[in-house]
Amino acid sequence: MATVALTAANFDEVTNKDGIVLVDFWASWCGPCVRFAPTYERSSEKHPEITFGKVDTEAEQLLAAKFDIRSIPTIMAVRDGIVVFSQPGALPETALESLIEKVEELNMDEVREQIAAQSKPATSADEPAAARG
Asked: Average pLDDT in the 110-130 region?
């Protein structure tokens, strides 16, 4: 499968669906980005069930800012609409394949439970007795 150009107009539509979406934040002037591109393309051909997207950070500056992209390339993995991985740096092919395996193996019910637990507001029952006075 060829890579998909992701823009502010289509990013949410592509990444909020069920399944895995890998996102490569890159720029044409970035040497490591250019060297990583063939690895990313080869991986996209091996995994037709995964959407491989590319965000040109020069053309999509607001999208890069939304995800606080400070270094490129940055690889992001989204599964079932949830960002489960984001890391700057070009990955060797073996590391990219390992990342894909780990994302495929995730138990998304557990991931959602962890997110819910982290976003749960503290209640007085959660406070130590000394704090309740």
From this structure: 73
